[in-house]
Amino acid sequence: MAGIEFDRQVFAPATETLRKNPPQLLGMVLLILVVGLAGIVGYKVFTQVSQSHSTAAANAHVEELQQQLASSQKRVEELEKHHKSAKAQTPVPAAEAPAVVKNPAPIRTVYRIAAASALPPQRPVAPPVTTVGTSRDCTEP
Hints:
- With about 140 residues, this protein is mainly α.
- The chain contains two helices and no strands.
- It has helices at about 15-90, 135-140.
- It is elongated, with a radius of gyration of 54 Å.
- The model has no long low-confidence stretch (mean pLDDT about 80).
């Protein structure tokens, strides 16, 4: 068997290949852990930032509503003061002898209907009478 050569490395134990895989496997696991932790931290930061923005927007809206409420309360107070002063200026007459007041008849509303156009009404035109027959029918007096 001098002419046949075998590759003896194929038949050698695979101890060397197993020793190289654990560092690669460990590197992949660490990479996955780092990416997962970065995702979690990014999510936490995003939720806190968005929550602070929504809180700020809500506070601004509440402040605007409070200003509107204050201005409407001022208007109501002004109207109440004006209403009270108007009542005070018009003194109520003292109790006078009740006079018999005749209530006038209620006003009746009269409706008038007019044509929608300004043209005078026209009678419908009858179609011309045509007779079918001989000339003898037309000559009779």
